[in-house]
UniProtKB/TrEMBL annotation:
It is found in: Cytoplasm. SMART domains: HTH_MARR. This is MarR family transcriptional regulator. InterPro entries: HTH_MarR-typ (IPR000835), MarR/SlyA-like (IPR039422), Transc_reg_Sar_Rot_HTH (IPR055166), WH-like_DNA-bd_sf (IPR036388), WH_DNA-bd_sf (IPR036390). GO terms for cellular component: cytoplasm. Keywords: Cytoplasm, DNA-binding, Transcription, Transcription regulation. It comes from the Bacteria. GO terms for molecular function: DNA binding; DNA-binding transcription factor activity.
Length: 159
C-alpha cells in the first residue's frame, strides 16, 4: 500500500512546478492579448524591454540578460529587424561581435508599450506590495535551480 505522504508528494496540486507553470501560462496569455495590439510576440517584447533599458547591446549581452542562447535569439532579432524596430551591425574593431540597437520605430514602440506593465498588474489581482515580495522569491528560485543544474552538470562531467 502506498503511504499517504508518498501520495501527497506526487499529487499535482502539491507540485511547485505546476503552480509556476500554470501562473506562467496565464500571465503569458495576458501579455499575448496586450502585445497583439503592439504587433509583438512575448519573446519579442522581452527583447525590446532590454533594449529600451540599455539602447544598444551585443547579441551576447542581450542573450545573457534574457537567458537565451544565440540560436533562439537570432530569429527573434531577425523578425524585429524586418519590422524595422532594431538594427544589427558588426562592430568595427571585432567583426565577430554583432550589436543590436533600436531604430526610431523601436524607440517609438516604447511609448506605445508603456501601459502594458500596469495592465498586466491589474490582471493579476496582486498589489504592488505582493509583487515586490513575490519577484525576489521567484528570482531566488530561478538562480537556485540554475545553479543546481550547473552543479549537476559539473558532477556528471567529473564522474
Amino acid at each position: 500500500m502506498v503511504g499517504s505522504d508518498a501520495t501527497a508528494n506526487l499529487s499535482l496540486d502539491s507540485q511547485l512546478c505546476f503552480s509556476i507553470y500554470s501562473a506562467s501560462r496565464a500571465l503569458t496569455g495576458v501579455y499575448r492579448e496586450l502585445l497583439d495590439e503592439l504587433d509583438l510576440t512575448y519573446p519579442q517584447y522581452l527583447v525590446m524591454l532590454v533594449l529600451w533599458e540599455h539602447d544598444a547591446l551585443s547579441v551576447k549581452e542581450l542573450g545573457a540578460s534574457l537567458r537565451l542562447d544565440s540560436g533562439t535569439l537570432s530569429p527573434l532579432l531577425r523578425r524585429l529587424e524586418l519590422r524595422g524596430l532594431v538594427r544589427r551591425s558588426r562592430t568595427d574593431n571585432d567583426e565577430r561581435i554583432v550589436r543590436v540597437a533600436l531604430t526610431e520605430d523601436g524607440i517609438e514602440a516604447r511609448r506605445r508599450a508603456e501601459e502594458v506593465p500596469q495592465r498586466v498588474l491589474c490582471s493579476t489581482g496582486l498589489s504592488m506590495e505582493q509583487v515586490r515580495l513575490l519577484k525576489p522569491l521567484l528570482d531566488q528560485l530561478t538562480e537556485s535551480v540554475v545553479s543546481a543544474g550547473r552543479d549537476a552538470t559539473r558532477t556528471q562531467t567529473v564522474s
